[in-house]
Amino acid sequence: MGSYILRRVLLAIPTLLATSFIIFAILSLAPGDPLSQFAANPNIPAEVRENIKATLGLDQPWPVRYVKWLWAMPQGDWGFSFASRIPVLDLIRQRIPQTLWVVGTSYVIAVLIAIPVGIISAVKQYSIFDQLATTFAFIGFSVPTFFTGLLLVLVFSVKLNWLPFIYDTNLQVTDLNSFGRQLKQIAMPVAVLALFKSATIMRFMRSSMLDNLPQDYVRTARAKGLGEPQVVLRHVVSNSLIPVITLIALGIPSIFAGAIVTEQIFRVNGLGELLIRSIQNSDTPVVMALTFIYAILVVIFNLIADVLYGVFDPRIRYR
User: Fold this and answer.
1) What share of the chain is helix, strand, coil (3-state, %, to 5)?
2) Distance between terminal CA atoms of the chain?
């Protein structure tokens, strides 16, 4: 196991280097001028704009800037945001709590709901519960999140006035009262994202369970006198979780990428909103940081998923 993990880590290094090079090259060659806001101001002389460009290192060829960026990253220097005028890492740290409150909470709720519902739906195939769960799943991943979000806003904010429409980023959770306000303002975005994510995981879990229930090892377990709950939980669920692990593990990096559409609807100042605004402003240091962080998380959770395969399936042995 240790040697396998070491090989995967060593393989991940050139993968991340190639990914960082592609990201930097595409963003550097893409149209858009981060200093366009200065160019539109006639009061700023051309030489001042050139000095600003030199200060930011934009007067150098992009391969040179890439090497400097790559060298500075491990030291915690990910550059400065052109738009916000603060270090990129500080800007990301400001946005992470909002994204974790909304996207992280929704993902945890989706997994906790989807796996048990998928198990019960497969065990009670074609029952009323299965039909309701399947209908719920089809609605969840068929209806766009922007439609679900607008519908909840119209019902719970406009008509009933139960929940706030705009997310208050400045709210600090210090007591039960502020915690209750936080729960109220994340209720709608969490519901929108949890509906979408749980539908996909539930259908995947149900399909995996149905593939394993007719297998010979299940009939053998029943023939040995094991009760149905033991057969399902000890044998079928553990094997059915193996493909679902990949789906869940690879979905975790999306938490840190933010929910772009949902954050736009509910005015959540998270990482998704930051990414969209940075793209619009040609704020390449922020875009590069967010996309590269996402690439790192994808590689890490791929490795975690491989390790969990061996935990859930004793047939898998790494050498």
Assistant:
1) 75, 0, 25
2) 6
Domain ranges for the chain: 97-312
Spatial neighbors of 242 by CB under 8 A, at least 6 apart, are 208, 309, 312, 313
Mean pLDDT of the chain: 82
241 closest CA partner among 315, 138, 317, 311: 311
Give the pLDDT band (50/70/90) at residue 43: low
CATH superfamily of 97-312: MetI-like (1.10.3720.10)
Cα angle 43, 44, 47; round to 5 = 140
CB atoms within 10 A of CB 101: 21
Tens digit of pLDDT for each residue in 167-224? 877 777 788 888 888 888 888 888 988 888 898 899 999 999 999 888 888 888 888 8
b/e per residue 249-277 (b: at least 16 CB within 10 A): bebbbbbbbbbbbbbbbbebbbbbbbbbb
Q: What is the CA angle 204-206-209, rounded to 5?
A: 110
